[in-house]
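Q: What would this chain look like folded?
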Amino acid sequence: MKETIKYLSYEKEKSPINILMTGVSICDKNHACFRENPKIAIIEYVFRGEGTLLINNKKFDVKEGDVYILPAGVTHEYYANPQNPWAKYFMNLSGVLPHSLTSNFSLDNKYVFPAESLKDLFKEIIKISFSDINDTEKQLRISSLYFEILHRLYLLNKNAEKSSEAVFMKLYLDENSGRIVNNTELANQIYRSPDY
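A: My prediction, written as structure tokens:
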């Protein structure tokens, strides 16, 4: 495994968000990590390969173009696919804001997101991390990008939920093609009002 890591200085206990470290992991077939009740939050973008994430008694197959969020305080384990080990951009954070943001963007209890469109934001985080600007400025810029990433994940997730509603309605209509289905009945199937 090859890892390039940048540690950033931060204000202990004073700031609602601290970027502790960022980096790039080029994993080998044996790469694995287990964290029990971690004090940090982590967000990672897989830019090549595949792996597996185990969190909250759920198993996720993670692939190129996926983002995964590992909240502080939640035990997790992940490992590379031995046939196609992953390579990832990552960021470790502390403070109260990472949890608050994921919660307010309705991303809590969701961990893996198909988000190929966010690759450039993660690349920009790495670029800023290794630049010559001071760490205070790095904290500001990277925190802003973190906010943008979460906001974009929220929008992608919201669109995915709408898409799944459309798929469900189509299946319901297909199953009931021999009779007339009105708007109210269809809306009730997805727990929406008829004028939604």
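The chain is about 35% helix and 30% strand.
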